Amino acid sequence: MSGIELVESNVQHHTHNWTYTWGQECGGGRCEQEIRSAGAGWTDPRAAQSPPTATLSAQLDARYQTSCDAGVRSHLDVSSRRTYGTGWRAWVAYAESNGFDPALLEVVVPLRELVIYFAVHLRETRFPRPGVPIKSVTIDQYITHVADYLVTHEITRDGTDLRSRRLTMLLAGYQIADYLGLPMRLTQKIPMTYVLACQIYQMVDMVVRDAPGRRPCERLSPWDMACRFDRVNTLIMERRRVSRAS
């Protein structure tokens, strides 16, 4: 490799520092002077090809943001948007009563901590009926409403940012209190498979009721079938409780 080739190669790789000397290969001070003069007019060709991040972001926002925001807002129909507004208005009232911005400007408290106290605030301040606090399922829906607003307006990235294991445990405790003293048929979901099976059995019985030796089955209304299922389920739960206690 000749001395001049070495100089040209290092001009492209060391333009930030022109104090290198190459000793005998470059002829000492002459080579250093050539490097300084060559580097004075040299620019990195990649600089013109990579716009700054801020400039690119501004270009993308100007071109796509309006359409993107409209599309995001349209993920809810008009009626659902009004329903979701209920939870957000409750969040605004909670923020005003505690002196922080509902859009979380300059808020240093973790979002999940704000949300779990929001659930407690709703439980202690909202009573649909005298002496009956707002139910756990409604609190959970309000939190979903707040998460939707914050994500839609890019205040937070994901709705899961609002939820924590402690919030799940809190809502589960509220749910137990909500169902305390209620009959099981009002607290447990009755599988439709059971009801449909009874109805099909009755239809088959109607078809073959005149068959020799056929004993018609008992005819039950859907409500009677639900009550029978409730009694059977209550008996099963009672036996499980006794077995665990023993």
Explain the overall architecture:
The chain is an all-alpha fold. It has helices at residues 3-13, 29-40, 53-73, 78-98, 111-125, 136-152, 165-179, 184-187, 192-208, 222-245. α9 packs across α10 (222-245). Residues 1-26 have low confidence and may be disordered.
Q: How many beta strands in the DSSP annotation? A: 0
Rg calc: 36 Å
First-to-last CA distance: 92 Å
State the CATH architecture of the largest domain. Answer: Orthogonal Bundle
Number of domains: 3
CATH topology of the largest domain: DNA polymerase, domain 1
How many helices? 10
Oligomerization category of the chains in this entry? single chain
> Could you name the ranges where pLDDT drops below 50 across 5 or more consecutive residues?
1-26
